[in-house]
Specification:
This protein is α/β, with parallel strands linked by helices and 432 residues long. Helix content is 50%, strand content 11%. The longest helix has 33 residues. The relative contact order is 0.13.
């Protein structure tokens, strides 16, 4: 007896137009994203279109917002990949309601409304607070190096710039002399009325490179003067460090040491509460976290509207100045005083002398003793379980390991969008 199967007729036409919404379960993430965005204030985006005069109507900004946010929720960040999903993926098609904007439209929308999209972070956080999820109690800080949209091989040190500048000047002189000799020879052969004033392509290329290097040197010299002035030193004589780097693709990014070695990157900061909701976020050009503790405390208060009762941070945030700053607050702070080795018990960062602390003990000594108490070790041990899984979810689960945009302002907006979608996913798992 021949095996029977359920009907399968690929070429059969549907008798009625299908509704894509019927192909998704009611509790799908796409519906949650759509409903949530419908409850957000999008006036900062829609107002841009009110007085705009075009020969053709634009795509609806609400639709593009939903498509973009959903893309970041499911790890689809590239505008080209989003366009493909709009053709192939049912949730994307449902959110777009049959519209098919091209990748350029999606990319331009993201760039144009980055500031407004950045504001969604606080709106979603406010919504979570009303639901009782964004309680500010115990908060853990951490920073993560996110690769910039630039190669470290497109960077050059200040010392190398000087050497390259001198080399290029010599090459330009040689090419100019060669061009003059060629002109003289052509005048002799073809006559003086023949046009020969165009620069050779090779000369144009070298002069362009020389111009870019001069601008890069000017930027590094300006940074050195600003740093000297901030430190209270004379700025007129300040010179850049010979090893100071300038990246020609994204000049505002920096060479930073990450888990996989040195990369061209930005330092992305997050503050996470006990429910693994991001309650504060920022991006900095600083290569380490020491200068970020105080700014992040202010950012948490601004973005979440509240102040944590406990603050946990790793050794990257430890300094006498930072400990002095938190000592003036009511926040119960636990900051590791040394980097832990692999497999070391959390909260017990190395040996600590027993007995009463000497009167000469520094703030770092006192924090070390606090972490070595049984209660202190138990509190600090929670840091890894609170904040590190969030970074793992963003970088590993969703695959956001590199910014698509360039420049600190745009990168800050994109990081805010990443953190917003993380919080949306948390709310979806709790209430979706």
């Amino acid at each position: 007896m021949a095996k029977t199967y359920r009907p399968y007729v690929p070429e059969q036409d549907l008798l009625l137009p299908p509704s894509l919404r019927e192909w998704l379960p009611e509790d799908h993430l796409a519906y949650f994203v759509s409903d949530l965005i419908d409850h957000l204030d999008l006036s900062a985006i829609t107002a841009v279109y009110e007085d705009e005069e075009r020969g053709y109507p634009p795509y609806h900004p609400v639709m593009l917002t939903k498509v973009l946010v959903y893309g970041y929720c499911v790890g689809v960040f590239s505008s080209r990949r989003i366009q493909r999903r709009l053709l192939e993926d049912i949730p994307f098609r449902v959110l777009a309601a049959g519209n098919e904007p091209d990748f350029r439209t999606i990319a331009d929308f993201r760039k144009r409304h980055l500031t407004a999209l950045q504001g969604f972070f606080e709106q979603v956080l406010q919504m979570a607070r009303e639901l009782g999820t964004a309680r500010i109690g115990r908060v853990a800080l951490d920073g993560s190096k996110i690769k910039a949209n630039a190669s470290k091989h497109k960077a050059m040190s200040y010392k190398r710039m000087g050497e390259k500048q001198r080399h290029l000047r010599d090459e330009v002189k040689q090419l100019l002399a060669q061009a003059e000799a060629t002109d003289a020879a052509e005048d002799a052969e073809y006559g003086t009325d023949r046009r020969g004033d165009e620069l050779p392509a090779e000369l144009q290329r070298r002069e362009s490179r020389l111009k870019r290097i001069r601008e890069a040197k000017r930027v590094l010299e300006a940074r050195a003067k600003d740093a000297a002035a901030a430190a209270g030193h004379p700025s007129d004589t300040a010179k850049p460090d010979p090893k100071a780097q300038y990246n020609f693709t994204d000049p505002e990014s920096r060479i930073m040491k990450g888990p996989d070695g040195f990369v061209q990157a930005y330092n992305a900061q997050i503050a996470v509460n006990a429910q693994q909701l991001i309650v504060g976020q920022a991006v900095t050009q600083e290569t380490n976290d020491k200068k970020q503790l105080v700014p992040m405390m202010a950012i948490i208060a601004t973005q979440s509207g509240d102040t944590p009762t406990q603050l946990l941070a790793d050794a990257g945030y430890c300094s006498d100045a930072n400990l002095a700053a938190v000592a003036d607050t009511a926040i119960d702070t636990y900051i590791s005083t040394r980097k832990q080795t692999h497999g070391e018990r959390p909260g017990r960062p190395g040996p600590c002398p027993r007995g009463p602390l000497p009167t000469t003990a520094t703030r770092v000594d006192r924090m070390s003793r606090k972490l070595h108490t049984k209660a202190g070790a138990a509190v600090y041990a929670a840091r890894k379980a609170i904040v590190e899984p969030v970074i793992g979810q963003i970088k590993q689960a969703r695959g956001f390991r590199q910014f698509l945009l360039r420049g600190i302002e745009k990168v800050q907006g994109e990081w805010a969008l990443v953190c917003t979608t993380h919080n949306i996913l948390k709310l979806y798992r709790l209430y979706g």
